[in-house]
């Protein structure tokens, strides 16, 4: 079963997940960057890390939902004049973004769970600690999370840069695929 997209745009649910994920991902990334520059155990670093972790778990859920919806949804075609290199670069960038949207929350969870840190989802309930007290898992989770953060910065910058390149330089419909379809009402003849 395949759900057709509203050509030439992605299906509305995928567009909603994309923009919600983008906003939450950028907020989580900025919080993580800020907290990385602050001294451990200080306020507001502690409180912001709680928000960062909750955003990460939300992003993991949204990514799983997005992959499920994407599996049964037909994507709109890329602009016909897109080169093989552009298609390959776009595919790789999306693949890396999906991987990071899974790996970052998982490694953050491993680090927090094994390291004995709080795992309260937006202050409402505690997430289970599957690796409590395992210092090897804690150190591995922290190290991988830290290294992947740099890949996040580069990949997000490339994604946003490519979006601007398509919209401003190429002036093609790549960005329009992730926006609501233009309505015919916007081009009504005024009778002149």
Automatic annotation (TrEMBL):
Listed GO MF terms: electron transfer activity; heme binding; metal ion binding
Family from the record: Belongs to the cytochrome b561 family.
Keywords attached to this entry: Cell membrane, Electron transport, Heme, Iron, Membrane, Metal-binding, Transmembrane, Transmembrane helix, Transport
4Fe-4S as UniProt keyword: no
Record-given protein name: Cytochrome B561
Cofactor: heme b
PANTHER family given in the database record: CYTOCHROME B561, CYTOCHROME B561 HOMOLOG 2
Membrane topology: Multi-pass membrane protein
Cell location: Cell membrane
Highest taxon above the source species: Bacteria
Gene source species: Bradyrhizobium nitroreducens
């Amino acid at each position: 079963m395949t759900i057709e997209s509203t050509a030439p745009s992605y299906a509305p649910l995928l567009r909603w997940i994309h923009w919600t994920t983008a906003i939450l991902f950028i907020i989580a990334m900025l919080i993580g960057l800020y907290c990385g520059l602050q001294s451990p155990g200080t306020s507001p670093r502690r409180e912001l890390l709680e928000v960062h972790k909750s955003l990460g778990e939300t992003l993991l859920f949204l990514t799983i939902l997005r992959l499920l919806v994407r599996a049964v949804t037909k994507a709109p075609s890329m602009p016909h004049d897109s080169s093989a290199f552009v298609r390959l670069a776009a595919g790789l960038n999306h693949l890396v973004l999906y991987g990071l949207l899974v790996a970052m929350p998982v490694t953050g969870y491993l680090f927090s769970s094994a390291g004995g840190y709080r795992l309260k989802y937006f202050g409402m309930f505690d997430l289970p600690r599957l690796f409590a007290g395992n210092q090897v898992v804690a150190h591995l989770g922290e190290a991988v999370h830290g290294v992947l953060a740099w890949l996040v910065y580069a990949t997000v910058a490339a994604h946003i840069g490519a979006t601007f390149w398509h919209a401003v330089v190429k002036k093609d419909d790549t960005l329009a695929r992730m926006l609501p379809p233009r309505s015919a009402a916007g081009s009504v003849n005024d009778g002149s």
